[in-house]
Design a protein that fits this description.
The structure is a homodimer. The first copy, chain A, is an alpha/beta fold. In chain A, 23% of the residues lie in helices and 21% in strands. The first copy, chain A, has an eight-stranded mixed β-sheet. In chain A, helix 9 runs parallel beside helix 10. The first copy, chain A, is globular. Chain A starts with a strand and ends in a 25-residue tail after the last strand. In chain A, 48% of the residues are buried. At the A-B interface, helix 1, helix 2 and helix 3 of A face helix 1, helix 2 and helix 3 of B.
């Protein structure tokens, strides 16, 4: 089952020529889930993976840079005659906000299901769950944890044969949990294997809830609005420095930390260096980059630069200088 | 005095990779006036001429694709500590719309002056005027005419000498309207010369008010949402075809017609061919192109492609195929 994160926009607060406002598209099998929807998200999608028919949308909080693209996206779905209902999840306040915004922008004809989440809620999906994580930002604000169901343990065919089972249907039955000719599943199956886990911090000061939620996650997407020389300003505004995000990732023993929500105040290369000095597994996606997340036994998460494999020449070390590239700015 | 039109976004309804939603920046001397502000306008500006401190903003109407970029733009001005008040002009309904939108997006700290215009209003500026033109679209909708004051006639130094005046201060005094040694200004000055005139149609079916307002204008920016094979659909939706815009431009004897508000339904090359068959002076700007408008005695309006003179290789005939170019998509 494919599982990946597509970075639709990686700027914070104000867009730049190269970075759009916050949005991340999670793709798992056929599901397409958008986390945040900054102004311009619809055009970022049109310019990259296409204006995919989203399964659902989650907002982390209600600061303008994280949701102002939603009314336009909904209007465009409407123009394109979307019929399928769309669920939008966010902290309390969503209904008032979106109702007000759509009073100005105009209604849409498909059904909108606006769901205000509470800490402790867990949304069950086919093979995975999504849960809000209260974070430390001005106003109601969530991060989100997305975690797959446990998978059955690894089957040991040699042990099965040793215990007297034969290749074929017997192998299938015991793997599905049946006791076959006295052989119990736990005798030939390893321990259940954890599913994959991703945590998205949203905007937040470094916080314990994210650290706990992110424990041993495959990917933590954490905001990094400031460099370390502005850590006071980060604290005042309830944001994080890249170094703080890295320290949290190290404590949480995550496999990969993806920094985002970059400000124009700091060169991305500085944030990278400050974070990697603390946690080596830090990546700094650009718009349209993807993180592919294989099952752990098949390898670690990989940052795939936009344009790689498409004949464009993109260097891995180029994140710092941010050369002109690809079909968007 | 410089006078130009910068095309911030030239798509209609839905943005594409290459075209943002509607916005035109009029530049005259130090004035920077934005007409419409589709979603993504702030990023289009950041990606091209910079996020200039706008003098004022005019909206043609309240369909979502024409104004959804305004709340984000205002929030960004606020983040950048704008102090100067900003006036926003639009048809009646502006105050309710923008108040509602800012209730959702959050307030700004600089003063917003929301002005609902009525047909017949004329805003006097330093050396020019701006007036709304009622047009034929769903809901209240204006085009705008921007026209400079008349300039004094051309001074004829030979005639002045013949009538007995001498080079120097006497020339200046008679040109400023003074009778000098019995010589009256009208004896040595040609007739007053018209200022430059630009008309922006906004979204509209072809309409008489625009035709009259655009009479002998230097540039008419007219929407061209449809090709001629969809003229019925254009009429139903109160839009225009490229050919209708061209016919109107020909009747109005404009110097240059700039088509915009392109839909993805039709290749731009088709719209170009249909319009030029009727009115040769038709141009089809791409995002970030500029129309420079000199005083008529110095030449005709010129479409300057983005990147021209910047070392990028852009062909004039390339409008049709729309090759990848420039710093934005």
């Amino acid at each position: 089952m494919d599982f990946s994160l597509f970075f639709v926009g990686t700027a914070g607060s104000i867009p730049t020529a190269r970075r759009g406002l916050p949005a991340v598209l999670l793709r798992r099998g056929g599901d397409r889930i958008l986390f945040d929807c900054g102004e311009g998200t619809q055009r970022q999608l049109v310019s990259s993976v296409g204006l995919t028919e989203l399964t659902e949308v989650f907002l982390t909080h209600f600061h303008a840079d994280h949701w102002l693209g939603l009314p336009g996206l909904l209007k465009t779905f409407d123009l394109r005659a979307r019929e399928r209902p769309l669920a939008i999840y966010a902290p309390p306040g969503l209904r008032e906000l979106l109702t007000t915004a759509l009073r100005a922008a105009g209604r849409v004809r498909f059904e909108l299901d606006m769901v205000e989440l509470e800490p402790g809620d867990v949304l069950e999906r086919d093979g995975y769950r999504i849960a809000p994580v209260p974070v430390n930002h001005r106003g109601p604000a969530f991060g989100y944890v997305i975690y797959e169901d446990e998978r059955p343990g690894q089957f040991d065919p040699h042990e099965a044969v040793r215990l007297g089972l034969t290749h074929g249907p017997e192998f299938g039955r015991v793997q599905r949990g049946e006791t076959v000719r006295g052989v119990r599943p736990e005798q030939v199956m390893g321990p259940p294997r954890p599913g994959r886990k991703v945590v998205i911090s949203g905007d937040t000061a470094p916080c314990e809830t994210v650290r706990i939620a992110a424990h041993r996650s495959d990917v933590l997407i954490h905001e990094a609005t400031f460099a370390q020389d502005e850590r006071d300003r980060a604290a005042e505004t309830f944001h994080s420095t890249a170094a703080q995000a890295a320290a949290l990732a190290r404590e949480a023993e995550v496999t990969m930390l993806a920094l985002t929500h970059f400000s124009t105040r700091h060169p991305v290369a500085l944030l990278r260096d400050e974070a990697r000095a603390i946690f080596r597994g830090t990546v700094l996606p650009r718009d349209f980059d993807t993180i592919e997340i294989p099952f752990p036994e098949r390898g670690e998460p990989q940052l795939v630069r936009w344009g790689e494999g498409r004949g464009l020449d993109v260097e891995d070390g180029a994140a710092a200088s941010e050369p002109l590239r690809g079909p968007t700015s």
